[in-house]
């Protein structure tokens, strides 16, 4: 039994690879390295790493057969909300069209177990909080729409072809692995916590970076800034193993939120970053961005009940401390 990790060189993918290898699960990684980094994966004969695109059916099929893959973790996607407004064609092609090619290839190779990396962005503006899996899905970005389209595709393939899948709807992935070997890195970087910590690092290295930009301080929240649910990447990696176990055990296709059930505002994250790093972080206010919902946080109760998911990092301080350890290195 070997598990394929598609997109295994990305932020969540590389942490999941490390987590599953520590559990002794045989893996093979397939990634086109458009957003991931080869150096985030170990050089080991026990971990095959193949460069390829999930939209390349012939190459993907060869990879799946060569490594005798029995189940797939699908984390290969574009995920920058703002960019999806500027280039929706790229997002629908990469996230939806290529995923249909992937599913067709899995059927050709007689592989019918899949864990899909979804997102809380499919919900859109919340009608009630915390968000549960039953909340209506009305995404307000092309990114969220492309992910919701894949969830519909998975449901149809499950009904027609016997695919069994778990869709994991992440809230805001954050933090770094407990050893400090892997952290959050994107090019360009768009996520709040790594942007804050990189600014502090520059400041401590004698540079004079500009004030940190807050996009909108007039939202209907206690301090006027957006509120998000931050989930440690190591806890997301744990959820992938639990989802694999669930599918292997014959669990019915299902959807799970991976959220903490509480949120923190942008200003609260900045204040915690100041506390963890010991550095003041000057800020500047800019207009709101398209697609930013005022408040998003989700219940992880269903994942706790059916998967046994128990996050180990349940507060913002522990998340930022792990991230800062990696940034200092």
Q: How would you characterize the overall build of this protein?
A:
- The chain is 39% helix and 18% strand.
- The protein has 329 residues and is of the alpha/beta class.
- The protein has 2 domains: 2-174 and 230-259 and 301-306, Rossmann fold (3-Layer(aba) Sandwich); 192-227 and 262-297 and 311-328, UDP-galactose 4-epimerase, domain 1.
- A 7-stranded parallel beta sheet has the order 3-2-1-4-5-6-11, with helices on both faces. Strands 12-9-14 form a 3-stranded mixed beta sheet.
- Strand 5, helix 5 and strand 6 (164-170) form a beta-alpha-beta unit.
- The longest helix is centred in the N-terminal third of the chain and has 21 residues, at 88-108.
- The mean pLDDT is 96.
Topology:
Layout: E1 2-6, H1 11-22, E2 27-31, E3 49-51, H2 57-66, E4 69-74, H3 81-86, H4 88-108, E5 113-119, H5 142-161, E6 164-170, E7 172-174, H6 192-204, E8 212-215, E9 227-228, E10 230-232, H7 233-248, E11 254-258, E12 264-265, H8 266-277, E13 283-286, E14 295-296, H9 301-306, H10 316-328
Parallel strand pairs: 1-2, 1-4, 2-3, 4-5, 5-6, 6-11, 7-10, 8-13, 9-14
Antiparallel strand pairs: 9-12
């Amino acid at each position: 039994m070997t598990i394929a990790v598609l997109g295994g060189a990305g932020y969540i993918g590389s942490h999941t690879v490390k987590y599953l290898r520590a559990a002794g699960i045989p893996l093979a990684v397939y990634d086109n390295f458009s957003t991931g980094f080869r150096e985030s994966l170990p050089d080991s004969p026990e971990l095959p790493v193949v460069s390829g695109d999930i939209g390349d059916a012939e190459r993907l099929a060869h990879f799946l057969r060569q490594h005798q893959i029995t189940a797939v973790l699908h984390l290969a996607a574009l995920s920058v909300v703002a960019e999806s407004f500027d280039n929706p064609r790229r997002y629908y092609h990469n996230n939806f069209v290529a995923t249909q090619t992937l599913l067709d290839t899995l059927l050709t190779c007689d592989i019918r177990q899949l864990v899909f990396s979804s997102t809380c962005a499919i919900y859109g503006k919340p009608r009630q909080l915390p968000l549960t899996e039953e909340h209506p899905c009305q995404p307000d970005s092309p990114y969220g729409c492309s992910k919701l389209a894949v969830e519909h595709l998975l449901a149809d393939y499950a009904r027609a072809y016997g695919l069994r899948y778990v869709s994991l709807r992440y809230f805001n992935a954050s933090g770094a692995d407990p050893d400090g070997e892997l952290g959050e890195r994107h090019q360009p970087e768009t996520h709040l916590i790594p942007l804050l910590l990189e600014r502090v690092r520059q400041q401590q290295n004698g540079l004079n970076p500009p004030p940190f930009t807050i996009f909108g301080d007039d939202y209907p929240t206690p301090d006027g800034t957006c509120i998000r649910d931050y989930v440690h990447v190591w806890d997301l990696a744990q959820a992938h193993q639990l989802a694999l176990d669930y599918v292997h055990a014959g669990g019915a296709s299902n959807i799970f939120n991976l959220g903490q059930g509480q949120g923190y505002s942008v200003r609260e994250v900045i204040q915690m970053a100041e506390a963890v790093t010991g550095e003041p972080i000057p800020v500047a206010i800019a207009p709101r961005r398209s697609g930013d919902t005022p408040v998003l946080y989700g219940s992880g109760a269903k994942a706790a009940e059916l998967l046994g998911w128990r996050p180990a990092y349940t507060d913002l301080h522990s998340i930022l401390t792990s991230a800062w350890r990696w940034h200092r290195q």
